[in-house]
Amino acid sequence: METTTAPSTKGRPREFCVDQALSQALAVFWSKGYEGASMADLTEAMGITKPSLYAAFGNKESLFHKALDLYESEKLAYTREALKQPTARAVAENFMRGAIDAQMSKCDPKGCLGVISATACGAEAESIKADIITRRASSQAALVNRFHQAKRDGDLPDHVDPENLAVYLYAILQGMAVQAGSGATRAELERVVETSLMMWPSA
């Protein structure tokens, strides 16, 4: 566990756990979005001063990028497991059910950090929105590749376009994230998954 020495206004410098502070910052960004999270919100949650935050993480934008790395590593691990499923339908189901588990966790804020921050970004935070879009495009490309493999395996019918199918699935996932952040229940999101699977193309 990494620790760093933070500047102190008086007395000896104070050490704090960088990983723990970053985890607290992630929780703030997740619940408030990038623009909604103030420096006061962040430093209070992280238990450090503003100079300590700058010294350890850089500015607010740099802190968000690091928090997003942590989010993808810990909270989106289900997406990497979903791609390993034996059928395209199982891939989609694992994506959607994994999203529900992540978005409805009792330990974390509701909804999706990427969706929350991207939809709430103004002109001054275009770099944040661009980073989220780039990361999403990379994940979506991996899903497209998996659907291409499913088509080669005969697991998807010939008329299905893998790119369009991936866009469709991401539209469902993003809609679920918005609903989760707006107060939808787990049961309501489960019904979205069941309905989507009923319409899933089969070979």
From TrEMBL:
Pfam families: TetR_C_13, TetR_N. Gene3D superfamilies: Homeodomain-like, Tetracycline Repressor, domain 2. One of its GO terms (molecular function) is DNA binding. InterPro entries: DNA-bd_HTH_TetR-type_CS, Homeodomain-like_sf, HTH_TetR, Tet_transcr_reg_TetR-rel_C_sf, TetR_C. Residues 38-57 bind DNA. Residues 15-75 form the HTH tetR-type domain. Keywords: DNA-binding, Transcription, Transcription regulation. PANTHER family: HTH-TYPE TRANSCRIPTIONAL REGULATOR YJDC (PTHR47506:SF1), TRANSCRIPTIONAL REGULATORY PROTEIN (PTHR47506). This is HTH-type transcriptional repressor ComR. The lineage of its organism: Bacteria, Pseudomonadati, Pseudomonadota, Alphaproteobacteria, Sphingomonadales.
